[in-house]
Design a protein that fits this description.
The strands form six sheets. An eight-stranded parallel β-sheet has the order 7-6-5-4-1-10-9-8, sandwiched between helices. A five-stranded antiparallel β-sheet has the order 11-12-18-14-15, with helices on one face. The protein has nine helices and 28 strands. Helix 6 runs parallel beside helix 7 and helix 8 packs parallel to helix 9. The protein is α+β, with helices and mostly antiparallel strands.
Amino acid sequence: MSNSAFIAPTADEGVHGPSVVRHAPEDIARRELWAHSNFGVFVHWGISAILGGLWHGKHVEGLAEWIQFKAKIPLAEYAQLAKTFNPVDFNAREWVRMAAEAGAKYFVYTAKHHDGFAMYHSQVSAYNIVDATPFQRDPLAEIAQACADYGIMLGIYYSQTIDWEDPDAVGPSCNSWDFDTEKGDFHSYWRRKAAPQLSEILSNYGEIGLLWFDMPSGIPAECAKEAFDMVRELQPGAVINSRLGGGVDADYNSMDDNYFNNLLPAGDWETAATTNDSWGFSTLAAGWKPVASLCETLAYTVSRGGNLLLNAGPDASGAIPEKVKQQFAGIGTWMQRAEPAIRGAGSSPFASSFDWGYVTAGKSSLYLHVADHGKQELSLRGIASKPDSVRDLGTDTLLPFTLNETDGMGPLLTVELAAPIDGLPRTIELSFAELPSFDQSLVQVPGSPLRLDVWNAETGADESLQWNFTMATPGEYRVVLLSKETFGNFDPQWWADGLTGTLGSGADRTPFTLRRDGEEPYPILHYWKVVRSEIGLLHVSQTGAQKITIEDLPVVDSKWDRGGVNMIALRLEPLALA
């Protein structure tokens, strides 16, 4: 995975290939099973797990699986780890069963990470788990069989560009401490090792549903095309992520690690995320994500039309850490009630998001994932017809609801919520004979805050943002700009302090300066906080149409971009109602 401890984004940390929108019938058919899975499990495992983030007893900052690069460990010393790698606790069925019981439908295994050590039986290079370790078993073969037994799609990760074992694998983040990079020839590495290993992976492990490439920068276009064509020839049903590089097309977009952009792709996409602050096993792992946060991340991902790939880092014995098992077991508990709201579900039909949680849509049902445990009722604008029933899937009880159209601003559905049964999001199912139409207008629920997401703003030629909306309750409202901390998860940053802009409302133009006036947790990103900046007031003298603009403010949409504010939304918070 990308090394988010770096100061500046490397190629794998920024844009991961071209935007992908493929609508040909064969492309849609290829993606269908993967896209409807919504949830997968990633496993980062290799001989780096022996070190667990420590070198000569000292903690090496950064991601544990990058330790060879970060500590500049000589290859001759690093390769000796293989002689002691004997993961006797490895059990492919337990790994895959953990994924299946959590509700995941695909499983991605690291066949070769950046250290160049093959975690399968490669005939191309003896630097592999069968020939170079006492273990002498092929984990990939066992995982492939377990996936077949559990009905889980098999995905394979392959680091095609970086390989710290090979002197010819030159390019960004290559091994420059052992080898003279001026003498390296990437094409030689590609012909000798990478392409032949891809061929044997694609040929020897049965049906593969996904090829997960990484680190796209530096690969020659002809090598990337060869890899692409090889997948299409040997595994025609497999989808390819957008981190292959070389300008080739892909089946879906891989977003930045542990991160969601505010403006997400129009086509299929996936975010890969960790369960703690590393991908590979770390003895000092911290930042363990609460189960409720992981459930929220999954609900949010589906509500925005994407897939979540959640990582586990087994230790050197082959065991999944107990905390990771607990996390996946907790997701499984939640999925027992939430599965119809996740599996095969689609994005929210509403124009805006909600502070209380997330909305996903099925074929004939709407699902409300209520993360606010204190919420006793909620109201939704814009549903054209009354649901046949409203049910709490956690308690399997029907909930009282009303559909009110008396204020002249469209239907207002209000649901009385049952008390939470645990600390996980409640899942509420609104059942219809068929999904009704939805009004995409932004209309306030009477007396409540109104959220104006940056992704549903109109963008002007001058990069200004404009929202048109309707207020149901006159009064005074605080205008709060919500933005997020970004950068690496080890070192969250908020670079927007002191940026200036102009708030426009009607004929009024009010300058503002962004300050950290408060913060809120951001469960879906966990390591980063949402920053509150109070930028002005909105006076609503009467119900009806309103307009707000944000002008002269640089807005960015990358966790690496220091040039502006990573803006999520405006929130209009009532101060005094008329």
